[in-house]
């Protein structure tokens, strides 16, 4: 059975809930987008079912479409939508129309339940990580780009997928 995740922004103007079959925050992304929107240490997302999303304070949401390949001839806007509170700036979730059944809450916005720490952290996009940013302690897999498994595949392999 999927677990209900409840989250909010820092100021409390946006409160949301969503059902997740993949609630373990195992993947830390160091890409420039995650670092600059989520903080120097990168971002950790979990997966959820987009149709289950319930929002209070929707009028306080804003959406950011990241710029890819900034300053190059290939510059374009990302299809993904980073939803954040327009009052306090807290990142809440990412949605992409290419995978309409999915939504990816930022683990940092989840208030309850307490998220289970992974036995092993997967650190991705290390090719974007500045030298001054340290990797987390403990057991980890490291990838210059993306990891080998999707969020769902990782949860299934670890026996953590919630049907």
From TrEMBL:
Query: Which InterPro entries does its entry note?
Result: CENP-V/GFA (IPR006913), Mss4-like_sf (IPR011057)
- UniProt KW Lyase keyword: yes
**A Pfam family that the UniProt record links to this protein:** GFA
Q: Which residues form the CENP-V/GFA domain?
A: 5-144
Per its record, what are the GO molecular function terms? carbon-sulfur lyase activity; metal ion binding
Keyword Lyase listed? The answer is yes
Keywords from the named record: Lyase, Metal-binding, Zinc
Q: Which top-rank group of organisms is this from?
A: Eukaryota
Q: Member of which family? A: Belongs to the Gfa family.
| The protein's name in its UniProt record | CENP-V/GFA domain-containing protein
Species of the source = Agaricus bisporus var. burnettii (strain JB137-S8 / ATCC MYA-4627 / FGSC 10392)
């Amino acid at each position: 059975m999927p677990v209900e995740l409840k989250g909010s922004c820092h100021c409390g103007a946006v409160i949301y809930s969503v059902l997740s079959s993949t609630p373990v925050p195992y993947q830390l992304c160091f890409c420039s987008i995650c670092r600059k929107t989520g903080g120097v240490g990168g971002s950790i997302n979990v997966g959820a079912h987009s149709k289950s999303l319930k929002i209070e304070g929707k009028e306080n949401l804003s959406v950011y479409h990241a710029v890819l390949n900034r300053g190059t001839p290939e510059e374009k806007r990302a299809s993904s939508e980073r939803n954040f509170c327009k009052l306090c700036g807290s990142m809440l979730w990412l949605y992409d129309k290419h995978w309409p059944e999915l939504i990816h809450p930022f683990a940092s916005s989840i208030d309850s339940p307490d998220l289970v720490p992974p036995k092993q952290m997967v650190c991705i996009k290390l090719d974007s990580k500045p030298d001054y940013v340290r990797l987390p302690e403990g057991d980890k897999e490291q990838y210059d780009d993306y990891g080998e498994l999707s969020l769902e595949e990782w949860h299934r392999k670890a026996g953590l997928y919630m049907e």
